[in-house]
Amino acid sequence: MIYSGNCLSVATLDQASDIAELVFDAPGSVNKFDRQTVEELDAATQALKAAEGIKAVIVRSAKSTFIVGADITEFTDLFSQPDEEVLGWVAKTSQVFDRFEDLPMPTVCAINGFALGGGCEMTLACDLRVADTTAQIGLPEVKLGLMPGFGGTVRLPRVIGSDNALEWMTTGRDRKAPKALAEGAVDAVVAPEALLEAAISMAQDAAANTLDWQQRRAQKKAPLQLGKNEAMMSFSTAAAMVAAQAGKHYPAPHMMVETVKNAATLDREGALALENQGFVKLAKTDAAKAQIGIFMADQLVKSKGKKQAKQATKQVAQNAVLGAGIMGGGIAYQGAVKGIPSVMKDINQAALDLGLKEASGILLKGMQRGKVDGKKMAATLANITPTLDYSAIANADLVIEAVVENPKVKGIVLAETEDAVADDAIICSNTSTISINQLAKSLKNPSRFCGMHFFNPVHKMPLVEIIRGEDTSEETINAVVATTLRMGKTPIVVNDCPGFLVNRVLFPYFAGFSRLVLDGADFTAVDKVMEKQFGWPMGPAYLLDVVGMDTADHAAGVMSDGIPERMQKIDNDPVTVMFSNERLGQKNGKGFYDYGTDKRGRPTKVPAQTAFELLAPHVAEKRDFSAEEIIARTMIPMANEAIRCLEEGIVASAAEADMALLYGLGFPPFRGGIFRYIETMGLQNFVDLADKYAELGPIYQVSEGVREMARTGKSYFA
Asked: Domains along the chain?
């Protein structure tokens, strides 16, 4: 044994005593680069350097995957330190990789499973790389608002070229082994059972100098081999692509392009110094804090979901969806495509036809993009059984009611369903606003009933809001969570209240928008600010058109009845004005905007002159509002209601609330979610800003709970 640590060890191979094997095998299910692993890698490097008779080193993992990256849990505290300390840490860590790269013998990396982030950088510190067919290699740091910090921006461009490297890094997409081979990131791809043998053979060839490992190493330590014109073209193209795709809100990809460009003429030492500096700048940005926060929150939600699913005692072999059409068809498709047979029941054939059309349309688009083959399409459609007869749902283990959003109609359907299914079948409602406790009164056994709120379009939106009623059993919740995960969705469990979590916080946002318009704001100006500056995928007027004015007006009524102290319907609400004049939004091609197609058949969206004319009698004289005021007047009501949901126990944690809004509404990821947004602003600053607008009404008035947190310096993420 040359070196033995807790996370890795080094020993000579039995087959050849002059070849050493550095094996990553950390406690737990995966290998990560935490501080201890980095320290052990440095100690192992020193031991290898001092060892006599070692002619080559193989680096591999003893687990089913190589190294999944750095340990993100260590970042939060680290990044809060002064710049000099963060710079000292990243420089010291990257130098560990340098020392390994400088070993006086060739190094070969045997890659299996994921080699991401620091794991990918470890492979790049080796002279040669062989991957098995399970390998996936990449640098996903951009998804955390960061850039590679252990030499990735230096080594990858010198291994596969700057164009390829920048595409890897600025998108964060990993490569499967064959693509990594085609782009030059690995030198060979073999079957999993042949990986070690291939690495040994490669190490022997390198030790015998039949493979020129010295030249490869020298190339990684030298300036980029780019001519002046070639470099100018390469980096200007990369900068333009990043500007178009990432926009101004995500500094990480811009920093990567700038760093690789400025380091192009430098050797390894100079290039790494630039990488270290860029990493520290990004680590201190609000975007990095937000995106790391999202990662941590996502891990929490996934862990919680898996734990609940493991506790499920009811096995779901068949779903049933009541109410076809676009939503019902989307839900049936989502179960079917994940291998869960789904009965789709409706009272008329036209709705069933529409539901099947929705499912087949999703599959056809997948085929056009090369993501779905004929076999997948046939198997998915075969898993959907359309029916007009209640008897067809008799064997369903889980029934999802998705009929019209009317409590009386839903109550009748739920009662009929209970009579048609087995006593242990789970019954859910896909309601978006109606109280689960109210709907549960239609059932003899409300313990097996809960809300299962999908978002439209079902196949694209990751979130399913699972709503626990006062009589819902934990067995029911666990089984629905397990089924949601099987359907490929992210479940977040909330308690019952009007609008639940997502719609309860969305409608105060819409109310803030409506009041702005009534006070003289141009709805197109509001949309522009909320999209371009705040970062929403759609501004509020556009989103209302997508939701549908009939749906929005109805839901506003439900919210008004349920929370009258804050959500009374607004007199002359622009939403109601549109609805009353049959401007339903995208449903009939006219709302705040007019929708159509151009000469090439591409969809168009133009501000509707009719909308301005209809609103004119109800709104104040047109005036311009600053971007800051538009953001404050729309976002304060949303933030206040999210805080109340947390304080009332509707949602269990700020992290879950953030993920619900991210996955259910498209909350801007660079802001990290509603609670991360509030905390980035600073709780006291948020209270002060809200107080500035408090006279606008109850939705602008903060709770005593947040005032107390601001006074005592507490955090929603403590």
From this structure: 3-284 (3.90.226.10), 315-500 (3.40.50.720), 503-650+682-712 (1.10.1040.50)
Mean predicted confidence (pLDDT) in 85-100 = 97
3-state secondary structure 117-176: CHHHHHHHHCCEEEEECCCEEECCHHHHCCCCCCCHHHHHHHHHCHHHHHHHHHHCCCEE
Could you give the CA distance from residue 180 to residue 160 in angstroms, rounded to a whole number? 9
Task: Provide the pLDDT confidence category of residue 95 given band limits of 50, 70 and 90.
Answer: very high
Q: Going by DSSP bridges, is the β-strand pair 490-495/128-132 parallel, antiparallel, or unpaired?
A: unpaired
Give the DSSP H/E element, type plus range, for residue 175: strand 175-176
Residue 470 tokens, joined = 């006062």
Say which amino acid occupies 698: P
For residue 519, pLDDT beyond 90: yes
DSSP structure class, residue 571:
T
Q: Largest Cα–Cα distance of the chain, in whole Å?
A: 90
pTM attached to this predicted model: 0.92
The two structure tokens encoding residue 404: 């019209």
- The token pair at 362 is 């999703």
- Alpha-carbon distances, residue 564 vs 82, 158, 213, 480, 561 (angstroms): 48, 63, 73, 31, 6
Q: In what order do the strands lie in the sheet with 114-116?
A: 114-116, 136-138, 175-176
Amino acid residing at 445:
N
Q: What is the pLDDT of residues 548-557, one digit of tens each?
A: 999 999 999 9
Task: Give CA separation, 90 vs 75, 148, 158, 295, 683, in Å.
Answer: 11, 10, 21, 21, 31
Does the pLDDT value for residue 15 go beyond 80?
Answer: no
At position 211, the amino acid (one-letter code) is: L
H-helix or E-strand spanning residue 375: helix 374-382
- Give the whole-angstrom CA distance, residue 98 versus residue 93: 9
| Helix-strand-coil split of the chain, %, nearest 5 | 55, 15, 30
- Measured distance CA(112)–CA(130) in Å, rounded: 9
pLDDT tens digits for 171-223?
A: 999 999 999 999 999 999 999 999 999 999 999 999 999 999 999 999 999 99
CA angle 496, 497, 502 (to 5 degrees): 95
Positions annotated as catalytic residues are 453
Instruction: Report d(CA 586, CA 547) in Å as an integer.
Output: 8
